[in-house]
Design goal:
CATH superfamily of the largest domain: Cupredoxins -  blue copper proteins
Structural class: alpha+beta
Number of strands: 10
Membrane topology: Multi-pass membrane protein
Strand content: 25-35%
GO biological process, one term: ATP synthesis coupled electron transport
Radius of gyration: 24 Å
Family: Belongs to the cytochrome c oxidase subunit 2 family.
Number of helices: 4
Largest sheet: 5 strands, mixed
CATH topology of the largest domain: Immunoglobulin-like
Keywords: Copper, Electron transport, Magnesium, Membrane, Metal-binding, Mitochondrion, Mitochondrion inner membrane, Respiratory chain, Translocase, Transmembrane, Transmembrane helix, Transport
Strand order of the largest sheet: 3-2-1-5-8
Distance between the termini: 30 Å
InterPro entries: CcO_II (IPR045187), CcO_II-like_C (IPR002429), CcO_II_C (IPR034210), Copper_CuA (IPR001505), Cupredoxin (IPR008972), Cyt_c_oxidase_su2 (IPR014222), Cyt_c_oxidase_su2_TM_dom (IPR011759), Cyt_c_oxidase_su2_TM_sf (IPR036257)
Number of domains: 2
Length: 227
C-alpha cells in the first residue's frame, strides 16, 4: 500500500502492474528528454544575440521537426498498445469472483461454489484493532489464491462505482445493468488495499477493498471453513 509522502507507485504485485510501471518509466524518460531539449533551446535563444538566417528558413529543419515528433509518438504508442491488449486478454480462469457495487459497500460471490457470498463493509474507526488501517479495513476480506488466473465480473446495483486495486494494476468500472470483466493474477501473497475510484455519492470515500492473497493450500482451507 501507499506510504506517507510517497512519490512513486505502489510496489507491483502482478505482471500487468509491472508492465505498467515499465511503460511509465519509459514515457517519463522521453518527456524528460523533450523538456530538457526545449529548455536548452529557449535558454539559447535568450542568451545568443547572433542568428543564422539559413537555419531560420530551411526545409531540412522543418522536415526534422515534423518527422521527429512522429517517431517519438510511435515509440510511445507501440508499448502502450501492447499493454492495452495484455490487459484485455482473457485467459481460461481458474476461479470466478463476481463483485457488485452498492451505496456504499461491496458484495462478493464466488460463482464456482454454492452459497459462498458476503458483503464487505468498511470497519468503523471505533472497532479497529491494533495494526489495522483507518478507512481501509473491512469486516470481510476477499480471499484469493496466488499465481492463478482469476476472472472478475464487476457490476453495480445503483450508481457508478469503480473497483480499483492499484498494486495489482486493476481498475474496472461497475456500471448498473452492465457486467464488466477483467483478469486478476498475483505473483506473491499479501494483503492489498484499494478503494472505489468513481465518485458515487456522500460516502464515496468509505467503501474500501481488501484482498488477501494466499497460497492455494491456505485458500482451500479457507473455503472449507466458509462452506
Amino acid at each position: 500500500m501507499a506510504c506517507p509522502v510517497q512519490m512513486g507507485f505502489q510496489d507491483a504485485a502482478s505482471p500487468i502492474m509491472e508492465e505498467l510501471m515499465y511503460f511509465h518509466d519509459h514515457t517519463l524518460m522521453i518527456v524528460f528528454l523533450i523538456s530538457s531539449l526545449v529548455l536548452y533551446i529557449i535558454s539559447l535563444m535568450l542568451t545568443t544575440e547572433l542568428t543564422h538566417t539559413s537555419t531560420m528558413d530551411a526545409q531540412e529543419v522543418e522536415t526534422v521537426w515534423t518527422i521527429l515528433p512522429a517517431v517519438i509518438l510511435i515509440l510511445i504508442a507501440l508499448p502502450s498498445l501492447r499493454i492495452l491488449y495484455m490487459m484485455d486478454e482473457i485467459t481460461t480462469p481458474s476461479l470466478t469472483l463476481k463483485t457488485m457495487g452498492h451505496q456504499w459497500y461491496w458484495s462478493y460471490e464466488y460463482t464456482d461454489y454454492e452459497n459462498l457470498c458476503f458483503d464487505s463493509y468498511m470497519t468503523p474507526s471505533s472497532e479497529l484493532k491494533p495494526g489495522e488501517l483507518r478507512l481501509l479495513e473491512v469486516d470481510n476480506r476477499v480471499v484469493l489464491p496466488t499465481e492463478m488466473s482469476i476472472r472478475m465480473l464487476i457490476s453495480s446495483e445503483d450508481v457508478l462505482h469503480s473497483w480499483t486495486v492499484p498494486s495489482l494494476g486493476v481498475k474496472t468500472d461497475a456500471i448498473p445493468g452492465r457486467l464488466n470483466q477483467t483478469t486478476l493474477m498475483t505473483s506473491r501473497p499479501g494483503i492489498y488495499y484499494g478503494q472505489c475510484s468513481e465518485i458515487c455519492g456522500a460516502n464515496h470515500s468509505f467503501m474500501p477493498i481488501v484482498l488477501e492473497l494466499v497460497p492455494l493450500k491456505h485458500f482451500e482451507e479457507w473455503l472449507l471453513a466458509m462452506l
